[in-house]
Amino acid sequence: MSSKTKIVVLRMKEIIYTAIFAGLAILLIALCFIMFRHGNDNGSEKEETRQTAYVPGIYSASLSLGSEQVNVEVTVDADQIRAVALVPLSEAVATMYPLMQPTMEGLAEQIVNTQSTENLTYPDSSRYTSMALLKAVDTALEKARQ
């Protein structure tokens, strides 16, 4: 009798643990693949959605300068920003805040050219004025997206 029969005894607990760890490994690999895949499809779709999400019209956001109020108006079409301007810019505001109008003109040109308020350049001397104006423009653009 030379049969070499082997009996393998598996415990149910070991099988369950192995199945759980194998499932977690597959899940981890799938998540890594989804998170780290290279594809500009999603980014360009989001960019297109953001650019075409405007409701055409003129939208404004108020900017408080001391006791004066200045409105930043943004004119948009369905797919692009047409113009950005300060309204009304009284002589009192122009005199008290001389950087306001030139800074807005520079920013408006960049915003219309790039169709975005991100990565704009402005001089250090008008940094805070530019940031206040950009915040107001972003507020007006948020109104245009709704």
UniProtKB/TrEMBL annotation:
<keyword id="KW-0472">Membrane</keyword>
<keyword id="KW-0812">Transmembrane</keyword>
<feature type="transmembrane region" description="Helical">
    <location>
        <begin position="15"/>
        <end position="36"/>
    </location>
</feature>
<protein>
    <recommendedName>
        <fullName>FMN-binding domain-containing protein</fullName>
    </recommendedName>
</protein>
<keyword id="KW-1133">Transmembrane helix</keyword>
